[in-house]
Amino acid sequence: MSVAALVERLRASRGFRHKHDIAGVVDALARGLPRRGAGDAGELAQAVGLGDDCAAIRDGDGYLLFAIEGLVGDFVDAMPWFAGYSSVMVNVSDIYAMGGRPLAVVDALWSDGLARAEPVLAGMAAASAAYGVPVVGGHSNTRSAQSQLAVSIVGRANALLSSFNARPGDRLVMAVDLRGRFEEPYPFWNASVGAPPARLRDDLELLPVLAEHGLCDAAKDISMAGALGTALMLFDCSAVGARIDLDAIPRPEAVDFERWLTAFPSFGFVMAVRPRHVDEVIARFGARSIACADIGVLDAGREVVVHRGDERARLWDFRESTFIGAPQGAVR
Prior knowledge:
By secondary structure, this protein is α+β, with helices and mostly antiparallel strands.
């Protein structure tokens, strides 16, 4: 497949379209919020703008982190145990993507009877045990005509990894755990279920350590938009462009490349790293047997171009359209 054709298919993918829909939500929310003055304490407490993996509230010497994830209904119906597991896993990943450490989660679960809720709850309990993050409360409705699940998390960070902190000249670094498999027929690369819990926790601990040691200050966990779609979210927040080398992207053997680019990995991050820190960042992930590579460079332009050898195509042009509607000049 040509690079141009690949780009067109990615732009039309479900993950890209879902993330692009965020722009409309951000716009509607921004129009509905009351304007605040510069002296408003609530406004000053915000450390990041809309568009990051978590809300970050300044709290003493650090930050209080909030995040929430909703699971699509067809996924909950088809794979209830794994949906429950994933609901905790993705929230934990959001906290670490911001340089934080998770404290606890709460859930909101709707189901048609308790029997349909039980495998979802069992999956949540398994992930809670694996990642060492307790479920401390929530909401349930077992008399609903359809299944719905959302999980929220709270955590703390000493130093932030923020989508708003990338700069022109940074290298785009991707880290991903390739020790997994696809959960057929879905685009979920599962490197978590069955892995040693201590390894899962210690692997994620790399992110806050990078933040606290000043080795990285901009990151996102790879979401349903895949590695490239997630990178676009980061670029949109930081008002930068990029050149990305498709051949440099870490990938498992014998997996279709297009499918891999739309995959949601259970452990996967894109990071903007100052050039002087790239080798050390890659080495730290490599020491834990996590694939990590420099896959591109950020620039001051407002377009994102991907290339494979001499073949290239524009993935996105922010001069024509925002991706997620991240407000420029956001609080940092």
